[in-house]
């Protein structure tokens, strides 16, 4: 890589270090070589040490290093200190971004995602509470970009669902359903995210059916599982699992609508179908 050679010849150039770190991170995202990510982190650390107090340059360095550390945790899932440092760096970056800047909502969104990851690692309810607060703040500052808003709403729904699973407050589950439904409405046909959001919305509805026994939730969930499976490409790693979920939820719905036909199988077929849906309805 020519830029690496230029970097070696100019070890005190923050701009060159930042550009090299960005390219290494892009190459990691494309090819998945963890060494590229490790190198990106090392280079971006150097850039962060060299950067002046220029608001734009400093914010860029803090943001890039924080996101790289978060990426390393998501891949290796080893050092939670990566999450702590990433959260601290993005906090610093967010504080430097003016309230009216279009970059502010995205930084808040990314910071919320880091807190969600930390909640998953630690189980500390304060982390998921903070993620929800940050995503709500991002929504108040959003500029009307439908792609961003769909992503934010989907992330907010996931965070609310995580809090529901932790505290068992049905209001969180209903709010998660409303947010994910809004995200689905903003996601155009043909977008890869649509199948994921449909699947997650179905999973949330199924969870509410288990709590409240409202058959409409089960009916809607079965329909959404079917749509999600149909929209998932044949070569997608989740195609088989989503197809099985769609079939299992349809069988469960049929057993509720026609109990007499399923009575003799209550301890086998229906329960098995029900377990199959519940066991596999993980958020993806």
From TrEMBL:
The keyword Lipid biosynthesis is assigned to this record: no
Superkingdom, natural source: Eukaryota
Region of interest called Disordered, as start-end residue ranges on this chain: 252-284
Keywords per UniProt: Coiled coil
InterPro entries cross-referenced by the UniProt entry: TPR-like_helical_dom_sf
Coiled coil regions in record: 34-96
Biased composition (Basic residues): 253-262
Coiled coil is among the record's keywords: yes
UniProt-recorded name of the protein: MalT-like TPR region domain-containing protein
Organism: Pleurotus ostreatus (strain PC15) (Oyster mushroom)
Upper lineage: Eukaryota, Fungi, Dikarya, Basidiomycota, Agaricomycotina
């Amino acid at each position: 890589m020519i830029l690496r050679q230029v970097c070696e010849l100019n070890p005190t150039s923050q701009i060159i270090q930042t550009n090299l770190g960005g390219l290494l991170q892009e190459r990691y995202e494309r090819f998945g070589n963890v060494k590229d990510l490790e190198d990106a982190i090392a280079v971006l650390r150097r850039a962060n040490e060299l950067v002046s107090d220029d608001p734009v340059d400093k914010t860029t360095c803090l943001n890039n290093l924080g996101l790289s550390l978060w990426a390393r945790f998501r891949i290796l899932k080893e050092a939670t200190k990566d999450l702590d440092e990433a959260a601290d760096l993005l906090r610093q970056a967010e504080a430097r971004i003016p309230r009216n800047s279009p970059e502010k909502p995205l930084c808040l969104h990314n910071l919320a995602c880091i807190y969600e990851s930390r909640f998953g690692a630690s189980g500390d309810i304060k982390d998921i509470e903070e993620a929800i607060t940050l995503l709500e703040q991002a929504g108040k500052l959003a500029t009307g970009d439908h792609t961003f808003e769909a992503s934010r709403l989907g992330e907010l729904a996931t965070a609310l669902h995580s809090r529901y699973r932790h505290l068992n407050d049905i209001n969180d589950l209903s709010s998660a359903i409303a947010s994910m439904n809004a995200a689905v409405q903003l996601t155009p046909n043909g977008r890869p995210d649509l199948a994921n959001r449909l699947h997650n919305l179905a999973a949330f509805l199924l969870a509410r059916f288990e709590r409240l026994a409202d058959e409409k939730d089960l009916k809607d969930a079965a329909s959404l599982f079917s749509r999600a499976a149909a929209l998932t490409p044949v070569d997608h790693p989740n195609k088989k699992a989503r197809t099985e979920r769609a079939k299992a939820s349809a069988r469960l719905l049929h057993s509720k609508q026609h109990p007499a036909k399923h009575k003799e199988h209550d301890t086998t077929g229906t329960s098995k179908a029900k377990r199959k849906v519940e066991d596999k309805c993980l958020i993806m």
